[in-house]
Amino acid sequence: MFLIALSTVLVMLFYALPGFLLVKTRLVPAEGISSFAKLLMYVCQPALIIYSFMQAEFSAELLCDMLFVFVFVLAVLAAVILAARFLLRKKIEDVKYRIYILSLCFSNCAFMGVPILEAVLPEYPQAVAFSAMFSLAMNILGWTLGSAIITNDRKYMSAKKIVLNPAVLALIVAVPLFVTGAKLPSVITDMITLLGRMTTPLCMIIMGMRLAKASPRSVFGKLAQYLICFAKQMVLPALVLLLLLPLPVDHNLKVSVYIMFACPVASVVLNFAEMLGEGQEYAANFVLLSTGLSALTIPLMVLLV
């Protein structure tokens, strides 16, 4: 399992090379990176959610498991965000610390999580459906509590933001199809599958673009960033595993949730920072460093299960 996880992560990291070269050679201007991020957030990510639901057959047991994953992840993420917000309350005016808070708990559960889950648990397609639940919980928090923390403005805490965001809108399509077992025309299914599978390479291409514009020292030269990444990618998933172990749920479900928590800092942290216009540099540094470190941390964490 260690070698499978390692090879999967290394292949994904290789996807960053085209983005790096495109910006370094100025074929893509730096100001165009945010447009790629919007394509990822508004098109590919919703397609990935629908694709994830398409990978598993409906059953009452699976539905209960998916609801459990959603509630568990939502509760853990909200608890970590609020605890970190309280601990850093005296420094909250500095956007750097506000980015620290989200970087500590938001995982790249979809763009990196799905291919890792498919590689590590090939006989358990339900894992991909669980990634959709993780992504849904994270996006609901991202569009509300997360946006409020990045901007330090409570206006983002609204019911409208909970309902009208790409992840929830994708569920309006995905859930009825999942529950009824209805099949879309093959042309549409192929399109959704292709767009959904674009998320990983597109996410990594954007990472490469960001790396081309970043200062190596700002990404790799700050101890605080390593400490946050260590807590995010090793300490938090280990604590999550301890919480899951005594619960009466399937072992593969526990492994799936654990692996998603062990994924690097979510690119949505950077995407939200880009869209909200605050903390972009700090968010980019965390995503880049965390993604690079994941080549070591994910294979190591997989050894625990």
Write a structural description.
This protein is an all-alpha fold. The protein is built from 16 helices and no strands. The longest helix has 28 residues, at 60-87. It is globular. The termini are close together. The mean pLDDT is 85.
Largest sheet: none
Number of strands: 0
The pLDDT mean sits at: 85
Structural class: mainly alpha
- Termini separation comes to 9 Å
Number of helices: 16
Helix content: over 70%
Global Rg = 18 Å
Question: Into which percentage range does the β-strand content fall?
Answer: under 5%
Low-confidence parts, pLDDT < 50 over ≥5 residues? none
Shape: globular
Multimeric state of these chains? single chain
The arrangement of helices and strands along the chain is HHHHHHHHHHHHHHHH
List descriptors:
single chain, 305 residues, mainly alpha
List the helices and strands and how they pair.
Elements: H1 2-14, H2 16-24, H3 33-54, H4 60-87, H5 95-105, H6 113-120, H7 126-151, H8 159-163, H9 166-180, H10 186-197, H11 199-213, H12 216-220, H13 223-244, H14 251-262, H15 267-276, H16 280-302
Helix pairs in contact: 1-6, 1-16, 2-11, 3-7, 3-9, 3-10, 3-11, 3-15, 4-5, 4-7, 5-7, 5-13, 5-16, 7-14, 7-15, 11-16, 13-14, 13-16, 15-16
